[in-house]
Amino acid sequence: MGCAGAAGRGGLADGGGMIQELVGQMGGLAWTVVAFIVALSIIVGVHEYGHYIVGRWSGIRAEVFSLGFGPRLFARRDRRGTVWQVAAIPLGGYVRFLGDADAASMTRDGHMDPALARQTLGGAPLWARFATVAAGPVFNFILAALVFAGVIAWQGIATDRVVVGEIAPTPPGIVNELRPGDEVLAVGGQPVNGWATLFRLTETLPAAPQQQWTVRRQGDELTVTAPDVAPPRISGVGPRSAASAVDLRAGDVILAVEGRPINRFTDLRPAVEAAQGRPVTLRVWREGEGEADFVLVPREQDLPSAGGGFEKRWLIGVTGGEGYIRPSTRTPGPFEALSMGAQQTWDVIWGSLTGMVAMVTGQIGRCNLSGAISIAEVAGDAASSGAGNFFWLVAVLSAGIGFLNLLPIPVLDGGHLAFYTWEAVAGRPPSARAMDILTRIGMALVLMLMFFGLSNDILCR
What we know:
The chain is α+β, with helices and mostly antiparallel strands.
């Protein structure tokens, strides 16, 4: 385990190491690109399939279903006459319906045979057009809820009783006499009635490397020595964070900050905040590698506050939680998992909405908006950390993309739906000139948003 922030060595002797590092970086880049393409292809494929299938059910004929843009790599025509293709540029996709003449899919051909015109998007009834356009984002939300539910069901949820599932390794000198299957009854003499109450003991128990735990083991009640309920053990590392930049990993244990020992994960926050963006040295223990120092530069971020709104905080990008014990889990039923998946999807949508409003009103900074580079890096990190994390990210991105597509901006699905709403209220569609002007404005806004996100990817590091 290397020491972050250490001075480099020069000379020919390091040539092999430099080559290995370069190869590693190239391999990491390739993995990031592949993970990004796979995630984007899943999300876009489901989004476009929503347009396609609801359009087909509504009597609208699809001429082309394309995954990707540019030159065609593979194609086949089905019995309905739709060409299904994979194109060379895997950065999106589209469905081209019969009669589409431009990106807005709003053209009507007055000279077309009425029966054929009914099969075009522009010639279909208002309800069919509305349903077909809305289906893309709706399918993204459905995908997100299903994937969230699948990951939750696969990983399981903690049992109601506080039963120890697995035991993680501890640094030398830390005693852990807990065993898998132990039911925790009390810690430090304070009763434990559930996992939530266990972690709330940090509010009343003094921080110490070890505590006295009362457990029920094979029918017997006994007291054992075990680590604190919330030790400074990392359970997760955020992508594109200060911690990921120096290769901190889940399972690492933080022993000291700036030379001062810490006993509880919550002790980390005030130490990082006190640095105010200056480099912070962490003494870290890693299983199989021992101790080493890591030098991190905290990054300022805008986070939701408990009382509403946002607050600025200095973060290094690590999370804690289960400490050295992993809860015993159960598999939720399908309805319970789907309910939790739907709730998680709504949380992403609501978080996206409040974050966008806060950014527009100036409550949070511009660096909270990320572009394709950041998303690709996050996808690569998630894929590297396991299938569960990768598919969870796919669900988050799917819900977020569904939300963005519903924004009332021309060229996005939400813009089309706004046009259709106008038509339903006014009894006629907007004029061709108005739609052309609004579509150009919408395209400019989307391009500006993309450029803004990409510039943040480069500047906000």
